[in-house]
Amino acid sequence: MARPRRRRSARRAGARRALSVRRAAALGVVQGAAELAPISSSAHVALLAEELDARRRRTLEVAVHGGTALVLPWVVRDVRARLPRGILFHVAAATPPVLVGAVAAEAIERRAADHRAIAAGLLAGAAALAWTDMSSFRRHAPSSRQARDATAVDGLALGLAQAAALLPGVSRRGATLSVARARGFTREAAGDLSWVAGVPVMAAAAARGVVMSAHRGELGADLPPLATGAATAALTLVALSPARGAIERTPYAAWAAWRVAVAVAALGRGAGQTGTLRR
């Protein structure tokens, strides 16, 4: 009886190491769809790719994020007319995440697939979004600041939010939206600033990921599925771009509820895996 069981375990282990074109395409669709909402696309991809070994999961995440980073400037091209003037805002917004990423990238990467870390980040982001929604209802004076009014101090605040979003599950989009709204920007302006602050950081992160994966020799073996995942992520984001306005108008509380549901699912799956290991 023990020998067939060992064979089944070996087959399951082989399946965990495999990355098919179909699987990469499906995860590319998830990445492209989740990129528009403040729900942490990284968390969704990591949870759905947990059957892959660490190397393949890491390179797949690099590929699908790279795909969306390539087309995102085109998707949000209308934001340029509402950008803050000057370069200081952009430098201030990009500096914190670049510095934190350079110093702590490996530590963050090690926790990227940890169910508890992902769930904690999802719940923290959900709390921030829900608080932002409630605060907007309670505020006596409506927010009136426009994107073009953003200063270097605002950029630094958004940059710190993006640095915090390097933690698994937090969501760069969600963190920057919450911070921008807290600083008195209108909902539309907060959305614009979130995209403006995020595009350079996402591009830099994707470029770094590609360079590091190439240096480790991780790209060659799975190049067809990785290319498929990147292309599918990009095409999905472009295809869904007409829905961007509706997604941005969705109450933050709705996205917070989604995040809580995914966090609960992540904790449940993590507990199930721990129980399997103990048995």
Low-confidence stretches: 6-15
Would you tell me the overall average pLDDT?
Answer: 86
Overall strand count: 0
Number of H- or I-type helical stretches:
12
Helix content: over 70%
Total separate domains: 1
Rg result: 19 Å
The secondary-structure element order is HHHHHHHHHHHH
Judged by helices, strands and strand pairing, the structural class is mainly alpha
How does the overall form come out from the CA principal axes? globular
Give a quick account of the main beta sheet: strands, pairing sense, barrel closure.
Answer: none
Strand content: under 5%
End-to-end separation: 17 Å
Catalytic activity: di-trans,octa-cis-undecaprenyl diphosphate + H2O = di-trans,octa-cis-undecaprenyl phosphate + phosphate + H(+)
Protein name: Undecaprenyl-diphosphatase
Keywords: Antibiotic resistance, Cell membrane, Cell shape, Cell wall biogenesis/degradation, Hydrolase, Membrane, Peptidoglycan synthesis, Transmembrane, Transmembrane helix
InterPro entries: UppP
Q: Any descriptors?
A:
0% strand, 279 residues, globular, mainly alpha
Give a written overview of the molecule.
The chain is an all-alpha fold and 279 residues long. It has one domain. The chain is 76% helix and 0% strand. It is built from twelve helices and no strands. It has helices spanning 2-17, 21-34, 41-48, 54-75, 88-110, 115-138, 152-164, 172-182, 187-215, 223-240, 244-249, 252-278. Helix 6 (115-138) runs antiparallel to helix 12 (252-278). The two termini are 17 Å apart. Residues 6-15 have low confidence and may be disordered. InterPro entries: UppP. This is Undecaprenyl-diphosphatase.
